[in-house]
Specification:
alpha/beta, 308 residues, eight-stranded parallel beta barrel, 13 helices, globular
Length: 308
């Protein structure tokens, strides 16, 4: 039960100081979070797109407790878009946003999050790209989907994320696949109760494939968020069976994880998008990723010893 322990550490100022000061920490964090500022990240964007990859950008920072912080998160994304504009990359670089950063959990949070995210979606559309709404824990999803529906009335290219481990997701996928949405499918990493989510890996994997088939057979644009070689192979099989061309779906993986696979898929003609997080709140982001799936502790430890 490491998850609660790690999550508690993410909220501890003392642990923050200890972990931040450890020499090995920067080595690990730099591997997965390539910068803290827009100045840091723009060269990374240029490098990765120059190698045939696409990106989705996440400005980290999830502990939003005031409307002012939510507005600052909005402004950080607007600054990013302004800095990307001269690069002329269009949809090759999109944005991923967590509505909690835009104030969703505050009083009146649904309306506040919609008001904050709309100018980001508008500014993204102006430079030829789009925004994907990340999925968070199951209690936030009705609000997220309602905001997604509201945004798509004016910006139909707005994407959303669905999580295979939730029981509700097969029905969500059928609805979304029918109306042309852009949908990122992930397994899911939040600690969810057995009343709403599968708990065993084999159950989650089976649900992932069922949902993936629904998306591939539908009219939308599937985005496959997985590092699992078996699921990548199944994706290619289902795409062929559905008659989809390589530009009619895409793979998505995290920055710093299986980098050689990113390049391999791109070289084979697949759309390969790298989820790239940056920002000053790297500690909270990093610890939450470990808390969501403590098995990542072993993965990150192994990754420190490799360069692939």
């Amino acid at each position: 039960m490491l998850g609660p322990v790690i999550l508690a550490a993410s909220r501890s100022d003392r642990m923050r100081r200890l972990i931040s000061a450890a020499p090995v920490t920067k080595q690990v964090v730099d591997r997965f979070i390539p910068g803290e500022t827009v100045d840091d990240i723009v060269p990374i964007v240029a490098e990765l797109t120059g190698r045939g990859l696409e990106l989705t950008m996440d400005v980290v920072g999830e502990d939003i407790t005031t409307p002012e912080q939510a507005a600052a998160a909005r402004d950080a994304y607007l600054e990013l878009i302004d800095r990307l504009t001269p690069l002329g990359l269009g949809e090759r670089v999109e944005m991923s946003v967590k509505l909690s950063m835009f104030g969703q959990a505050l009083p009146g949070g649904h309306d506040l999050a919609l008001a904050n995210v709309r100018p980001v979606v508008e500014r993204a559309a102006a430079i030829g790209t789009t925004v994907t709404l990340d999925a968070e824990d199951h209690t936030t999803l009705d609000s997220m989907f309602a905001i997604h529906d509201a945004l798509r009335k004016d910006f139909p290219q707005t994407g959303c994320v669905i999580q295979a481990y939730l029981f509700r997701t097969e029905a969500d996928a059928r609805r979304l696949a029918a109306d042309g949405s852009r949908v990122r499918l992930v397994k899911g990493a939040y600690k969810e109760p057995a009343e709403v989510a599968y708990q065993q890996k084999h159950e989650i994997d089976k649900a992932y494939v069922r949902i993936l088939r629904t998306l591939m057979d539908g009219e939308g644009y599937p985005m496959i968020g997985s590092h699992d070689p078996r699921l990548i192979s199944i994706t290619q099989e289902l795409a062929r069976a559905a008659g989809r061309k390589p530009d009619e779906y895409e793979f998505q993986m995290l920055y710093g994880i299986r980098g050689e696979e990113h390049l391999r898929l791109a070289a084979e003609g697949h759309r390969m998008r790298v989820y790239t997080a940056y920002g000053t709140d790297w500690y909270g982001y990093f610890m939450r990723r470990l808390a969501e799936k403590p098995a990542n502790l072993r993965f990150f430890a192994r990754s420190m010893l490799t360069k692939g």
